[in-house]
Task: structure prediction
Amino acid sequence: MELWFSERQSTGVRLQIKVDRSLYTAQSKYQRIDILQTQEFGKILVLDGTLMLTEKDEFIYHEMMVHVPMAVHPHVRKVLLIGAGDGGALSRLLLYPEIEHIDVVEIDKEVIEACRTYLPNLAQSFDDSRVHVEIADGLRFVRQKLDLYDLILVDSTDPFGPGEGLFTREFYGNCYNALKEDGILVNQHESPFYPQDAKEVRNIYKKTRPIFPINLLYQAHIPTYPSGHWLFGFFSKRYHPLEDLDEAGWKEKNIPTRYYNPSLHRGAFALPTYVLDLLHNEELEMEIDDDEDED
Ligand code: AG3
Result:
């Protein structure tokens, strides 16, 4: 008998991955959690039927989320990481000895526990003494924070279910306040390709544009996410991701990577015309949620 994991990526498209066996399945207070063993992608983490990571291509997403801002901001000491219960982004942050303190805010402690058991290469990063885990809703957590962090990373799920609050105007405004005067916020920004996802890309852009003076997108090729074409948001109070890129300084740190390098960093900010149109062409016909910031 053949077992296949299947995710609906758009109304007419599914991604299917052949499964060897299920390693873990649970229904937490927030979501269904599955960890599956597959041949092609190693172990995969699935939340509510949506693929979060695979062992084979997680390096692309996590390296791009972490190293891009780290190569730009000259002195990151204190970081807030929201979501990210798998430890993938955390393990890349810990490669930087200058980072003194990382607050990880994950809503679902069962995700961390499952990943500690089944994805230890990533989740052992939770044992580092610089890491402080808070089991809480990121939206609520940042509400009380002022002028604290050099860097905030939002490693969320898609904008529905438990992660929905992390795509609201209120959340972005609170992140702005929680950042120091030269802080940077990076978020996972969905895909520009299928109309449903593209709508979210435009929504986030609309909500963040009035808040951050520097508001740019960068892209990566992630084979298992919808369309394989994925975006990240770079929101910054002072540093520009290209003008302030410290290529020599970053190289001197000898951080091991498999995807990220400073040339790719520069190229990642060059966006296809259809993505630029999505952001800047006000006439583009698309139904935009102006805001539904209640929680
Ligand atoms: N964060 C989830 C990215 C969204 C994936 N969307 C999808 N497959 N429809 C990744 C968590 C990894 N730390």
The first helix runs from residue 58 to 70.
